[in-house]
Design a protein that fits this description.
Layout (H helix, E strand, L loop, with lengths): L1 H25 L16 H14 L11 H4 L20 H4 L4 E4 H7 L4 H19 L15 E2 L5 E3 L4 E3 L4 E2 L7 E6 L3 E5 L7 E3 L5 E6 L2 H8 L2 E5 L5 E10 L2 E10 L17 H4 E7 L3 H14 L4 E6 L12 E5 L6 H10 L5 E4 L4 E2 L6 H10 L4 E7 L5 E2 L3 E6 L6 E7 L3 E3 L2 E7 L6 E4 H7 L11 H7 L5 E11 L11 H11 L3 H14 L2 E6 L1
Parallel strand pairs: 3-12, 13-14, 13-16, 14-15, 18-25, 21-26
Antiparallel strand pairs: 1-26, 2-5, 4-10, 6-9, 6-11, 7-10, 8-9, 11-12, 16-24, 17-25, 18-19, 18-24, 20-21, 22-23, 23-25
Helix pairs in contact: 5-15
The site of 2-acetamido-2-deoxy-beta-D-glucopyranose has 3 residues, from helix 8.
Length: 530
């Protein structure tokens, strides 16, 4: 009895342990957590930095002469906050607008109760932003002269946690008694998909693998079967692989990540552009129902079935009815960018057209032209022109650039103008910012978004956020009319007066919000503009 009991106990224990072991090896979760903090200080990175120093900074004894005109064009990380100082006659300002400069460090920090604290906080947030957005695939790698190593310099990509064959590995060399190469990675392991006779492989399934052979041809054959398996999950990053032989090292990157999932719109078969199927018109209204009604009536003359999405943050919403109209009521005074965000979030068509609630469609408001350029080019967003009651038409094109300025922050430069004319569309140019009458790819506009803290006057802020992610154009031949803006003060209605009070109230708090956003959120120290 005792013996049987003991045996049973033993069996249970053994099978329990076995199960535990099985569970451990089968378990899809690893017990030890994965460190997903940024790996900026990986050993490979340090190695790379050393190599770059060695290979770039040689030849110290050879003299050179700096060419000021070329050298001065190089970024120096020391932008200064300067306005145009040249003396100008009053009227020349119309033709050649002066550049003004706004020192954000002064404007924002001076009025802040704890300038040192806010400066430090911004620096902390910025360094964590840099760590989050760091991608090993962006690090500079220099290939050594006359390296016997052959390897892919770019274009190697592996899906997260999957395996690939590394293409292009090889070794060239003089006759020797034996040949040896190392491979080292930090986010994955190496193996060989086939074994070649006469080659010794050490470290298969590890982050460091050594291949050696007395025969160069056998080693090169073996190198054709080297695989890389990503073992640390990340949706979008890169591994820097070190590939070395005696006396030589090389580095290349393998991009790691999920593939980008497309976002396609099923707008139906189109022989000619069906605006109702492709475009939604979005606007935001506040205290101007009379203007909004005129806008809707004018749209309906030309586009009777296009959907109109309206964000409305009035205190006492009035009825806005009609077919193909969606109105979203927001808390009172939520503001301009919050309204743009809400309206754009509800769009289901491929394109969204932004209009202000005091615009009027005319026969010149040809949305087909905007769709056409967006369909045929890589533009993500295209602006049109706005005709004032005076007959003056503006396209409000700007270029925006950011110049590095070191620890104090960067300089933002906004200038009138554009980059170049678009081939095939002589009335259209490429710019960085356009007027508040624009059509964009809905998903791209949403990706940039509108900062909802900007409640009153804001427009360029969206384009600053869009820098580097939207390709922006502007066409002067798609024109919307602006319902009277210049109204004599004594003829204003009560609602107009209330609107002006809300929108143009230049309260200290409002001005300082812009300073804060530029100083802290965008980390600028200076803004210059025309
Ligand atoms: C255009 O699109 C709308 C909305 O999807 C649809 O109802 C209409 O039938 C389409 N018109 C044509 C001519 O295809």
């Amino acid at each position: 009895m005792r013996v049987i009991y003991k045996k049973c106990l033993g069996l249970t224990l053994v099978s329990g342990l076995l199960l535990l072991a099985l569970f451990h090896t089968w378990s899809p979760w690893t017990n030890s957590g994965v460190d997903i903090r940024q790996r900026q200080a990986s050993p490979i990175k340090k190695l790379l930095e050393g190599k770059i120093q060695d290979s770039i900074s040689g030849n110290h004894d050879i003299a050179y002469h700096i060419k000021e005109d070329v050298a001065s064009r190089l970024a120096q990380n020391t932008c200064v906050c300067l306005a145009d100082e040249t003396f100008q006659l009053p009227f020349t300002n119309l033709l050649f607008p002066r550049v003004w400069a706004h020192n954000l460090n002064l404007a924002f920090l001076e009025s802040h109760p704890d300038p040192e604290g806010v400066r430090r906080h911004r620096a902390q947030e910025y360094s964590s932003f840099q760590r989050r957005s760091y991608n090993p695939a962006d690090v500079l790698i220099v290939a050594e002269a006359n390296s016997p190593l052959q390897y892919p310099t770019q274009g190697v990509e592996v899906r997260a946690l999957k395996t690939i064959i590394i293409p292009g590995l090889g070794l060239k060399g003089d006759a020797r008694s034996s040949y040896l190469v190392h491979l080292t990675a930090t986010l994955g392991t190496f193996a060989v998909a086939a074994a070649v006779d006469g080659v010794s492989v050490k470290g298969e399934g590890e982050m460091h693998m050594i291949l050696s052979s007395p025969l160069l041809s056998a080693l090169n054959r073996q190198l054709q079967f080297v695989t890389y398996t990503n073992t640390v999950f990340h949706p979008k990053t890169a591994d820097t692989v070190q590939f070395a032989t005696e006396g030589h090292q090389s580095f290349f990157t393998i991009k790691i990540g999920h593939r980008t999932i497309p976002n396609l719109y099923n707008s139906g078969y189109q022989t000619e552009y069906n605006i109702s199927a492709l475009v939604t018109i979005a606007t935001k209204t506040f205290l101007r129902y009379d203007k909004l009604k005129d806008l809707i009536d004018s749209i309906r003359q030309y586009y009777p079935t296009v959907t109109i999405v309206i964000a409305d943050d009035n205190e006492h919403p009035q009825p806005v009815t009609g077919p193909h109209i969606e109105r979203y009521i927001m808390p009172f005074g939520k503001g301009w960018f919050a309204g743009r965000n809400l309206a754009v979030s509800q769009v289901t068509t491929k394109y969204v057209l932004w209009v202000d609630d005091d615009f009027i469609f005319t026969a010149n408001t040809k949305l087909e032209k905007m769709v056409d350029i967006l369909e045929k080019t890589t533009l993500d967003l295209v602006g049109g022109a706005v005709r004032e009651v005076t007959g003056y038409t503006s396209t409000y094109r700007h270029t925006i650039s950011v110049e590095e300025g070191g620890e104090e922050g960067d300089c933002l430069h906004i200038r009138n103008g554009y980059h170049h004319v678009i081939e095939g569309f002589p009335k259209c140019v490429v710019a960085d910012a356009v007027i508040n009458f624009f059509m964009g790819r809905t998903d791209k506009v949403r990706q940039v978004g509108f900062n909802p803290r900007l409640a009153r006057q804001a427009h360029l802020e969206f384009f600053i956020d869009a820098l580097g992610s939207l390709h922006i154009g502007s066409c002067s031949d798609v024109i919307v009319s602006h319902a009277s803006k210049i109204v004599l003060p004594w003829s204003k209605t009560d609602s107009q007066k209330a609107y002006d009070k809300f929108r143009y109230s230049s309260s200290v708090a409002g001005g300082n919000l812009h300073n804060e956003i530029f100083y802290f959120r965008n980390r600028f120290k200076c803004m210059t503009s025309q």
